[in-house]
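Lab notebook: predicted structure, single chain.

Context: the supervisor wants predicted structures on file for every construct in the current expression panel, including those that have not yet been purified. This is the next one on the list. No modifications to the sequence; it matches the entry in the shared construct table.
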Amino acid sequence: MRRREWQWAVALVVFMAATLCTAQTTEKTTAKESEAEFLNRTAWWREAKFGMFIHWGLYAVPADSTDLQAKKGAGEWYMFNKQVQVKDYEKLAGQFNPVKFDARTWIKTAKQTGMKYLIITTKHHDGFCLYDTRLTDYCVTKATPWKHNPMKDLAAECRSQGIKLCFYYSIMDWHHPDYLPRRPWDKRPEDGANLDRYLDEYMKGQLSELLRNYGPIGILWWDGAWEHTAQELHSHDVNSFVRSLQPAILINPLNKLPEDYMMVERAIPTNGFPGGRPWETDMTINDTWGYAKNDMNWKSAKTLARQLIDVVSKGGNYVLNVGPTADGLFPEAINERLAQIGAWMRINGESIYGTTGSPFRKLSFDGRCTAKGDTLYLEVFNWPPGGLVIRDLLTPVRSARALEGGEELATEVEEQDGFKVLHIRKPPRFDPIATVVKLELAGPPRVAESNLALEAGPLPAPQEFYEAPKIGLTESKLAAEAKTKGTYVLPAVYAEIHGRAAMYDFWWPEQDYIGYWTDPGDSVSWLINVARTGRYRVEISYACLAVNAGSRFRVDLGKGAEVSGTVKATQPGKDFVAAGTSTDFRTDTLGELTLSPGLQTLSVRITALAHGNAMNLHEVRLTPVH
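Prediction complete. Output recorded below exactly as produced.
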């Protein structure tokens, strides 16, 4: 897919910084669309929840995910990893002859797994086009012995089997002579190369082919934009062109504009995306996106299915990647896992499709919760020895039953500390992935407000990573200190975002923030549960580019209880693409506030916007003053 972790670290920091700068002067291409129109256009995507990603191309021929030092990388980055010259990489096309490709089988597999849409690489960073194009001979129908257009077959099968077809397209192109910058090891001269010509003639020409010749396309999935700003990529113009061809299409944010939804690569945010912004997680089944015969580190079906449940419980979509072989087959290890996920989905799919995220912030069992109208679905990973207990649910329960087998489950309600606590009997069958209990309620689910409030002490890490060690504050000294001192740590990931522009984003787990804060009417807030009256020191952590510094803000509890401050530059005088600028957080002490017992709402508001983005707000911390 995208970038090797150790190489895109620097690149993506630059991307985030550039995006921060871009957000000062740009608005969404779809800004004139009403909320009702947006919901209608994205309804199929929000209903689907589960999709398949396919990374397929010439890199499937060597099927090697290592670099020149034999270090682990990504299969689809073979050209980059091995520093292959363009003319030498082109020779792989003569070996690409996937005669075992069968579009019907691919789409049938996706459908039987429970997936509702498919995203496929039409052109990855290596520049090879996996469809018939008049703009280059470097494509599957002209440069390979196969001389076949798989996109035509996939489009027909998607229509036949009811799967939404979506296209991935890389802006970055290591093959095209006009794309700049070149790789350091690329020996071709840059004289005469013209990025604008590449964008306006070649890229838009190819987008026209893809969006005119294959019927309705659900998503245009951009990639490879991190080397340039939105202005340099003509992103507004290009996205408008795309919508002129396919008005209903969804566009991801990876050409430097917010567009229709956020996406996360191989990560699952702890609390979804605050503010209700649509989002998806894109996940690999092993460690790479394109097929690599030296990557057999397969995740289990249980892990993958639980990731799907986790993402959906947080309001997101889950897209699982498949890397076919050069023969055109899904590896058998992948088929086995997809079959197991599909078996679970056939029984429990109603707890996934068309649901919204959990109304609970804290659950009293090991599992997740999804919601649909007056129904809650409890996806239980491990049944508690003492029985399933549901706390903080205020809406009466009419019935409880297991989706597998359909048995009615006995329930009992008791009073504990002034709240009704629901007990649910264990069903006769238990699924090793998750046993789903369907709760029919007397109305929309209402949850005790205290369930949604943050307590003093440590919080979960901002992100849950499945391929790398968990990084965050959970076991840190800061967390231990916060618990001991009764400090309230209010991170970006747990904030409620109010307004039209500000949104949650992150670079790495401990570097998340609320940015794109270009509208002074936007604000963020946290609900906290205060144990006792006390005086607290207020500290705020944020990042700000030198060109944006100077906005004024206040932190308040309402009724005149507030402290205020002025946003200072994180790294004064540095260029906006300097590594680390957008997440190089500083901490300012603003003063003190008195907190009263009970539930309190603490807000951060902009009182005067200086220059574009107010700040990248990382965290507010309330420390008792003894």
